Amino acid sequence: MTARRSSVGKPRAQPAAIPARYYAIFADLLGQMNIDVESLLRAARIDESVLYGGDGMLTSTQVDTLVAGAAERTGRDDLGFELGRVIKLSSHDILGYGLLASPTLDYALDLGARYYRLISPLFSMTYTRGERHAEITLRPALPMKPPTLRFHLEAGAVSIFEQVQALIGRPPPHDVWIYGLEPSHRRRYSRLVPARWHFDGSAAPGARFVLPIEMVDRPNGMADRSALRMAVARCEILLKRVTRTGISDWVLMMLRESDGSLPRLGDLSHVLHVTPRTLDRRLRRDGETFLELSKRARSERACSLLREGRLPVTQVAYQLGYRDSANFTRAFRRELGMTPSDYRRRYARP
Asked: Does some domain include residue 170?
């Protein structure tokens, strides 16, 4: 554990992490269902100016609260499916225009995987091409609460299906697997033809599309080389914006925003589509290491949990990944000069 003593008792503000534009679409969808969206946003502490501001960002906590509140108020478990149906290529801002201008579906899918970080840091997308088939894979890039994970998994898989159709028209038959999910509304997927939808609730969460090679090689009638060049250049700028103030700030943000176990170096490098070695090198340019940032994030989380006072010290230790409370206590005392119990007595919230 490594902590800056000046921050004791004063948790730093949590930076925003997730593009808000998709939740603006979700809010509009809920409004069509006669849900009181204003009170729902208020409960999630989401400002409408951020939600509809174009470049607004939300925290994972805000997203968790929004998704849970929407499910409770609608009594529905298919909201991710519904959102996936209405997300358009243009919803992805400049990346969407790049997809529309791509010469083939093959090019568009490769482009989408390369810049998926601009859509969301919650999942990573990979695209591979073989001799007879091409594959799209979606995997969680960060820990999420189960309802949030299910919501985004459905929204992501269904939106990819819809956007492929928008690019090439009705595709040939192909297979889609959604892992870690057994939706009660699976009959609705049978209408998304000609895809054949498969579910495996026992597997690790994710989605996998297997597309015949002739499908991805279809030309796109809206291809525009000049527009594509400009869109790719803009996507590069947006992706590099993460590093302009230092990649270490982004890594620390992602560590803080994780819910549960901290993401690993490989997890975050996968989100950025760089190798772990490259991400480590960029961190060192900022004078940081992933180990030290992880220790800092863990220390901040320890202090926060101790201030809340809900969990005994032993449970705080386990939640932070320690095998026993003794190791946690030693590490905490080494960094903050007091035991976890002493810290709780001094800084516990009333």
From this structure: yes
Domain boundary among 227, 244, 261: 244
**Nearest alpha carbon to residue 17 among 51, 67, 60:** 60
Name residue 135's beta-bridge partners. 128, 210
Q: What pLDDT does residue 215 have? A: 96
**237 and 323 share one domain:** no
Assess contact for 115 and 230: CB atoms under 8 A.
no
Q: Can you give the three-state secondary structure of 129-172, one letter per residue?
A: ECCCEEEEEEEECCCCCHHHHHHHHHHHHHHHHHHHHHHHCCCC
CATH number reported for the structural domain that contains residue 295 in this entry: 1.10.10.60
pLDDT for res 221: 86
- 204 vs 76, residue with greater confidence: 76
State the DSSP H helix or E strand holding residue 208, giving kind and residue range, or none if neither.
Answer: strand 206-212
pLDDT tens profile 53-72: 878 889 888 999 999 999 99
pTM over the 0.85 mark: no
Burial degree of 165 (CB within 10 A; 0-12, 13-18, 19+) = middle
> Do 114 and 238 belong to one domain?
yes
pLDDT, the chain, mean: 88
Tell how far CA 60 is from the center of its chain: 8
One domain, residues 258 and 230 = no
Show the domain range for 178.
Answer: 77-244
